[in-house]
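BUG: 3D viewer hangs when loading the predicted structure for this chain

Environment: internal workstation, default settings.
Expected: structure renders.
Actual: progress bar stalls at 90%.

Input used:
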Amino acid sequence: MANAKPVLICCRKLDAFQRAHAWALNRGLTSLLLSPADWPNSTSIAAEFGAAGIITDEPSQPHFCKCRVTDAASLPQERPGEPGAWPDPVAILFTSGSTGAPTAVSKDARAILGEFALLKAWFRDGPPMTDFISTVPLEHMFGYTFAFWLPHLMNGAILEKRPVIPTDLKNACAAVKKPAWVITTPTHLRAYAQLPSGFDNVAGLICSTSPLSTDLARAAASRFKAPITEIYGSTESGAVAARVRTADEQATPGWMPLPGIGIQPSSAGTAVCSIPHVAGAVELSDLIEMDGPRFSVLGRTGDLVKICGKRHSLAALNQMLAGAPGVRDSAYFISDAAAPAETQRAAALVVLSEGYSTEDVLGGLRGMIDDVFLPRPIYAVDDIPRTDAGKIRNSDLQRMFQSLSVTGVLHLTEEN
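Structure tokens produced before the viewer hung:
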């Protein structure tokens, strides 16, 4: 089996993904995990990796017409076998491509089992994990680790359907026999926190992909009547730190490295050392500040923006925009990143609550940040273009922004 060709797994439904990946694992086939956003590139990816074909729950997809296609529904229902029989690598995932082209990252048995050991040590004092509900897709590293492998290795069960609409999640939580762990993202929590009533039968939440603000953490923990464990890591390193958010927290807590992991500032941003299942240190582009054993993330080495000679962190600006009056979802970005630094301007897309305007947003930001960083223009939109995992790709923002700039159908703030 060592030389067996890999297979592409392109499944939207959780039960189809689990069936396809377990089938491949048990036959010694490496799985290439593609998100729907990357399906248009499936033919070229299949050729690049020498894939034998595609397993999908959408066999009639036109993107797959040049490949050998297997309907996931035709495969037997199986659980992954013993680790000694898994292929090497087990899977190849692709980074979100939020700031550039997606990068392929391999996960072998050692990495999967090593990360599980770290997480088991972190959650050792928590309630038992038996039932899991995931609002995130499984081909993303967060979903793959926490909604595919964690339930399997904990001998738990994952709900076969992925609830995304708040009412669907409420019904799913009410239907499980034991209090469930909910695997989710800040994007989903923002919608759930706006419900007039709370959730029942939740043991805890595990959240990742972007940091939670204190306001959102408090509101979400209150709605779910359960603590939220936030996970910090990367596709390359896996989970390396965590923190717990509660309904009564007064300030955002620092990140605590998982047991045995060393994290420290480096010339590249952050060095993650002593990962048992990863050779050498992993360099991350986050700027961090240590406070005893904990650390805070200040921004990213590549996200400092300079406007009119002044600098600010794009991550911090996004956090402030997300907390402005009436903002349900948002994205702050540089609309002309390819232009000379001295001519670049900040822009924003916002999804607003009823009764709020973009002027309300700007009014909330004034006094918090220098006027040169106020987003001009700012557009009110129905939705922010996000992937199924809640990530925002800069290329999608730029396309949406250019379309709005040309049509002019939505509100453009007046230049000051």
